[in-house]
Design brief:
five-stranded parallel beta sheet; alpha/beta; 10 helices; GMP biosynthesis; GMP synthase activity; nucleotide-binding; single chain; binds xanthosine-5'-monophosphate; purine biosynthesis; Rossmann fold; 2 domains; ATP binding; about 325 residues
């Protein structure tokens, strides 16, 4: 029988065997997967672990602060935060292709972890032995959909699987690689992580970078951040957070349509709402949100987000759509 306690005991053994007494870093994204992966490694090897939070500029409003407050307070783990916004946005400049964006983001994450690992070694004035272990919260569906499973096509390169650079020097520690999200949540609860962390809706590592259809720029990210915050605020106010799996908010930066506001013509971008219900993200259905909630969200976004003059609802299940647009 599947039981979180057994999985924890088994993974702690494995992690100890793999890492020994070496130092290890873990990229923390604020999401459930990396939080639970880090907690497992912390349980296994204690303060040999340092967590690294990369602020890549593709985060939602308030995300960096939440990681600090929710996770670090609960676990007491050592956390290094790196401001990598300029690095990521420079690397993404001029790029519209979804797979290219994913590969660039995956590569820049690894570069950032490499630099962080070097800095940690220098700081510790240790004997200079490089940190070679990197923990990732890769789940089974990430592996399958990145083409790592048997007999599956490559649907999209999840940033921590198919998006890794070829010259990766880290040895990966991936204690969740055979698990589904609901199992990961059960393990997180068993490990004593706070409910705000464990029940958090999924948010992809590449962040808003794969929710802008078109080139990623700071201005577009700022627009999308406002729209996304409105949607999350209204969903929470309506008490629907637990009804949905997640609700990506997507900016169609390459599309413009004609609108009218006051006495004037507008020529702005659409925002797509993508509310989905799912058990494991392998399949999903679009969530039938109440019309009055949709109306409120639409009014607020068109009034509060400059340059957006239309809000549309994605009514596609997965398959044939994927949850994220890119
Ligand atoms: P798709 O779009 O493939 O998404 O239907 C399935 C689930 O995975 C999340 N997702 C990602 N998570 N790195 C992540 O950590 C990624 O590169 C990535 N791509 C998609 C997505 O939000 C959904 O929950």
């Amino acid at each position: 029988d599947w039981n979180p306690g057994n999985v924890i005991a088994e993974q702690v053994e494995r992690i100890r065997a793999q890492i020994g007494d070496a130092r290890v870093i873990c990229g923390l994204s604020g999401g459930v997967d990396s939080a639970v992966a880090a907690a497992l490694v912390q349980k296994a090897v204690g303060d040999q672990l340092t967590c690294v939070f990369v602020d890549h500029g593709l985060l939602r409003q308030d995300e960096a602060r939440q990681v600090q407050e929710d996770y670090v307070q609960a676990t007491g783990v050592r956390l290094v935060t790196i401001d990598a916004e300029a690095q990521f946005l420079d690397a993404l400049a001029g790029v519209s292709d979804p797979e290219q964006k994913r590969k660039i983001i995956g590569r820049e994450f690894i570069r950032t972890f490499e630099n962080a690992a070097e800095a940690l070694v220098l700081e510790a004035q240790s004997d200079g032995e490089a940190i070679k272990f990197l923990v990732q919260g890769t789940l089974y569906p990430d592996v399958v959909e990145s083409g790592g499973g048997t007999g599956t096509a490559n649907i999209k390169s999840h940033h921590n699987v198919g998006g890794l650079p070829d010259d990766l020097t880290f040895e990966l520690v991936e204690p969740l690689r055979t698990l589904f999200k609901d199992e990961v949540r059960a393990i997180g609860r068993e490990l004593g992580l706070p409910e705000v962390v464990v029940s958090r809706q999924p948010f992809p590592g590449p962040g808003l970078g794969i929710r802008i259809v078109g080139e990623v720029t700071r201005e577009r990210l700022d627009l999308l951040r406002i729209a996304d915050a409105i949607v999350r605020e209204e969903l929470t106010a309506a008490g629907l957070d637990n009804e949905i799996w997640q609700c990506p908010v997507v900016l169609l930066a390459d599309v413009r349509s004609v609108g009218v506001q006051g006495d004037g013509r507008t020529y702005g971008h659409p925002i797509v709402l993508r509310p989905v219900s799912s058990e494991d993200a392998m399949t999903a259905d679009w969530t039938r949100l109440p019309y009055d909630l949709l109306a409120r969200v639409s009014n607020r976004i068109t009034n509060e987000v400059a340059g957006v003059n239309r809000v549309v609802l994605d009514v596609t299940s997965k398959p044939p759509g994927t949850i994220e647009w890119e």
